[in-house]
Specification:
The chain has helices at residues 56-77, 80-89, 93-102, 106-129, 134-143, 153-181, 185-194, 200-230, 234-242, 251-277, 281-289. The protein is an all-alpha fold.
Amino acid sequence: TTCPNCGAVSCGTRYCAQCGFQLAQSSPPQSPPGQPSPSIQTNQPDQAPPPKRWPRWLCLLIGIVVVLAVGIFLLLFFSPTSRFERAFARGDFEQAYAIQRQSATGSLWRYERELVDAYLKETLEACQQGTISLDEANERVEAIEPFFSRGWDYDCEQAETVLQQISEDRAALIEADGLKKAARYLEALEVYREISSQDPNTYEKSRQGIAEISDILNQEALDKAEGLVEEGRFLDAWYALDEIPNSVRQESSTLRKQEIQKNAQQEVIRQAEEVLENGDPNGAFLALNQHPAYL
C-alpha cells in the first residue's frame, strides 16, 4: 500500500510506517458475481471410532469362571477340614472335636491326627526350650482331652509322661545344685546322674554340674596326696587318689596315682618286714595282701 501523504510503501498496516498517516482499510475480497462466497473452514477434530464390544460368549465365559471360583472358595472355606483347622488353630478344641464328629470322612480323621501330633510335638519342644512354662505345657496337653477318645491315649499319655519326667528332672537339678553348694559332692553326683535327657537344657546343666564336681574332687585329692607325699606317707597318698570315683577320675589324677604307687609298695613292704621281725609271719603276709597298692 502506497501512503498518499508521503508516498512510502507499507505492507498490510493501518498506519504509514514513515509518517504515521492512516491508510485506507482494505476490504475483504469479494467473490465474482454469480459465485458463492468462500466459506470459512474450521479444523474440527475427527470423531473417535465407537468402542469395541466384547463378544457375548466371552462375557458369558468370564461370568461362569467367576461364579465357579467364588463357589469353590466358599466350599473350601466352609468345608469340615477348613472349619476344623480354624477351630484347632484358635484353641477351640471342643468345637474342633464336634466338627470331626459331624464328619464321616477318613481324610479328616487323618488330618486330625496330624494336627494333634504336631500340637503335642510343638508343646513339648516349647517346654524343653523354655518358651512356655511346665504348667502351661500341662494345661495345653489337658486341653486336647476331647481327642483322647479317638484312640490316641498313648500319644497323649506319652506327652504327659515326658512332661512329668521334665518336672522331676528340674526338681532334681535344684536338689543337686544345693548339694554341690553344700560341698556334698558325692551325693550331688548321684542326683546329677539320675537326670534324663528329656529336657535338653536341664540335662546340659546336669552335665556341667558333673564336670564341675569332677574338677573339684580331682583337685582336692591331688592337693591332699601331695601333702601326704611331703610327709612321706605314700600309702595314704595313694588311697587319697583312689577315693576319686572312677566315673569322674581325670587323667592327671590317674598318672599321679601311678607315680606314687611304687613308693606306696615300698612302704607296704617295710610295714610287712616290721611285722615279720616281731615274729608274726601271718601278720606280715596279711600286711602284704591287704593293700591294693601293693597288689
